[in-house]
Structure formats: structure tokens, C-alpha cells
Design goal:
alpha/beta, ornithine cyclodeaminase, domain 1, Rossmann fold, eight-stranded parallel β-sheet, 13 strands, globular
């Protein structure tokens, strides 16, 4: 059993981002066996419980994750999880580990992979909508991907926005001001209603939307979703992503397909990467942690 502290000591973005890139390529290349996430609503407590299994290479496993949006108001994390890995060839259990930090870091790593591939090479202006856990993890993940010279922050809490902006050397402004002219826009809130309007976006912008991970929640309005939409998994996005479901948006490609060489016709419109999180990302990250743990144990 590996605790969150042990996972954190073994996991780095420098190694995680390439592992996630390979996992996304393998997923879209048909080299992963993964059913849809099985979600069980827990309406009496305002949350849901999900099970996310996958078979990937030499390992298989599952993440069990609880999502409670109301936890934010209680000063608690909204996502909590455990991951179990097994050996794929014998079925033997390998390791159980805390999955909260893996969820946090692999989510940011997926965004880093997408931004690295989809954002303009000369991108310099970053808008961050949100100031919580994912805002901070995304900044850490993006340090080795792009060198942004102008970082703008908006949050529904002015106090939280100011605190986060001071940490990263950013400017606080309204959502519209932050997005106007931005090369990359991160939507990282727990809002159930749109906080980003398409009319604010430049045609060249790249939007990375993370926060709305259930079919009844959305961070982006319908105009935003008229951009070229890229996802991790078509099947998962068309069932789970409220931004896509509620806008009846068309999916242009999976990010793994693009990494494998496919192209999309973007036209004169923004590109939107909508992430819901898929099991192979967690399994790839957990295997990376397990392999690092084994290396240190064998020394």
C-alpha cells in the first residue's frame, strides 16, 4: 500500500507527461482494453462513485474514485481515489495506492500533452479560469511545455484569484478580459454553468476544458463548442462531457489520433480540448509509480 506522500515522492511531470502521451496514443491505436467508467450517483450526499478499469500492456487495474463537488465549500478536496494494479499475465495483485494525487497530476499531464500538440508554437498569453488544485497542478505541468509571458487569472472568488496570481506572477482580471486575445485558455472550475463564452475567444485560441466531467455540467457555452473539438475518447466524451452533450457538439478527433499522425480541419475557429479523464491515464501513471518504487526497493 502506497500513501499519497509515497506516490508524490515517486511521481514527476518530467516522466509522467511522456507516459501519458504514450498511453493516449496506445488508446487511440487500439492497444488498450477499457470499458466506459461505471458511475453510481450518490444524490443524498451530492456526489458520485466511479470505477475505471483498464488492461494496458503488462498491467491491468482499476481506479475507484469519489467526486463530491460540494466538498470545495467544506475545505476538502472534491476528488478522492484508490488505484489497484494487477499483473496482466497472471492476475496477481501488485500494489494498492492512493489515487488522489495521481488523479490531480495525470489530469494536468493530459492537458500538457494536448497543449503541446494543439497550441501555437508561439503561444505566449495564458488565461486561467479557476484558482484551485487543478490551476496549480496545470501550472506545474506546463512549465516544461510553454514559456508564457502573460498569465491572466479569473476566479469566482476574488480572494482566491489574488492568492493564486501572486504565487505564479499573474494578473487578476475579469473572465472576459482574461480570455480576450489569449493563446491558451484553461477552464478549471467546478461551475455547473458556462463561465467561458465563445465570443470572447480569438480564432487562433486553444481551449483546454477540465472542470465539467458529468453530462449535466458545463463550463463552456454553445458558441465555444462550435470550435474544433478534440477529446481523449469519443465514447467517453459523448456520454460524460456535459460541454459536448448539452451543446450537441461534433467531435473532430481523439488527441491520440492526432498524436499518431491524423489531422483535423480547424478552419478559422478555436480548437477545444475537452477532457473527462479515462482509466488508461490512471493505470499508466500508477504503473510509473510502481516501477519507480520497485527500482528503489531493488537497490
Amino acid at each position: 500500500m502506497l500513501t499519497e506522500e509515497q506516490v508524490g515522492a515517486l511521481l514527476s511531470y518530467e516522466e509522467l507527461i511522456p507516459a501519458i502521451r504514450r498511453a493516449l496514443m496506445d488508446f487511440s491505436g487500439g492497444r488498450v482494453r477499457q470499458p466506459l467508467r461505471n458511475n453510481i450517483p450518490v444524490p443524498e450526499y451530492g456526489g458520485w462513485f466511479g470505477v475505471m478499469p483498464a488492461v494496458y500492456g503488462t498491467v491491468m487495474g482499476a481506479k475507484m474514485v469519489a467526486f463530491y463537488p460540494g466538498n470545495a465549500a467544506l475545505g476538502k478536496v472534491t476528488h478522492m481515489a484508490m488505484i489497484q494494479l494487477f499483473c496482466a499475465d497472471t492476475g496477481e495483485p501488485l500494489v494498492t495506492m492512493d489515487g488522489r494525487l495521481i488523479t490531480e497530476m495525470r489530469t494536468a499531464a493530459v492537458s500538457a500533452v494536448a497543449i503541446d500538440h494543439l497550441a501555437a508554437a508561439e503561444a505566449k498569453v495564458l488565461a486561467i479560469l479557476g484558482s484551485g488544485v487543478q490551476a496549480r497542478s496545470h501550472m506545474r505541468a506546463l512549465r516544461g511545455i510553454r514559456a508564457f509571458t502573460d498569465i491572466r487569472v479569473w476566479s469566482r472568488s476574488q480572494e482566491h484569484a489574488q492568492e493564486f496570481a501572486s504565487e505564479i506572477g499573474a494578473r487578476v482580471m475579469s473572465a472576459e478580459q482574461a480570455v480576450a486575445g489569449a493563446d491558451v485558455v484553461l477552464a478549471l472550475t467546478s461551475s455547473p454553468e458556462p463561465i467561458l463564452k465563445g465570443k470572447w475567444l480569438s480564432p487562433h485560441a486553444m481551449v483546454c476544458a477540465i472542470g465539467a466531467a458529468t453530462p449535466e455540467r458545463r463550463e463552456l457555452d454553445a458558441e465555444t463548442m462550435r470550435g474544433a473539438v478534440v477529446v481523449e475518447s469519443r465514447e467517453a466524451a459523448l456520454k460524460e462531457a456535459g460541454d459536448i452533450v448539452l451543446a450537441q457538439a461534433q467531435v473532430s478527433a481523439e488527441i491520440g489520433e492526432l498524436l499518431n499522425g491524423a489531422r483535423i480541419d480547424r478552419g478559422d475557429r478555436p480548437v477545444v480540448f475537452k477532457s473527462v479523464g479515462i482509466a488508461v491515464e490512471d493505470i499508466a501513471a500508477a504503473k510509473l509509480v510502481y516501477d519507480k518504487f520497485q527500482e528503489r526497493t531493488d537497490r
